[in-house]
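Service request form, structural biology core

Requester: graduate student, group of Dr. S.
Request type: structure prediction, single chain
Budget code: on file
Notes: please return the result as structure tokens.

Sequence provided:
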Amino acid sequence: MGLWSFAKSVGAKVFGGSEAQAAPAEALKKEAEKHGLDVSGVDVKVEGDKVVLSGKALSTEEAEKIILAVGNTTGVASVENNLAVNKETPASKTYEVKKGDTLWKIAEANYGKGKGAKYNVIFDANKPMLSDPDKIYPGQVLRIPPLEANA
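Core staff response, request fulfilled:
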């Protein structure tokens, strides 16, 4: 639960969305489905550049991925998460990619010096939105799962 912030001028371009306003609810659901996420129990409501998600998700991880799939689209400045989950799992932190970042650098910053090789944990946590560890961009928001859950 809570409000997640995004850089509304970057992200996937979804039909009907612009920097001024998020795409229509149905287009945002299709964007999440495109990534193989189950949004059948999710209600999407668009309020300008804010998206409100309610209903049910399979797990905490699935809910976070739905939020990221919707939030990392042009025109979305925030996503209000009101999703209930069937299976509670440890929540992830979020990280906004900055110019010059790599997943290795992000892993070292979040997991500690010498743990850059754990970048694959971050990559896996953001699949299928990420298709390649080298394809991240400034302003993109990523899930950073707890390392002990993926040791």
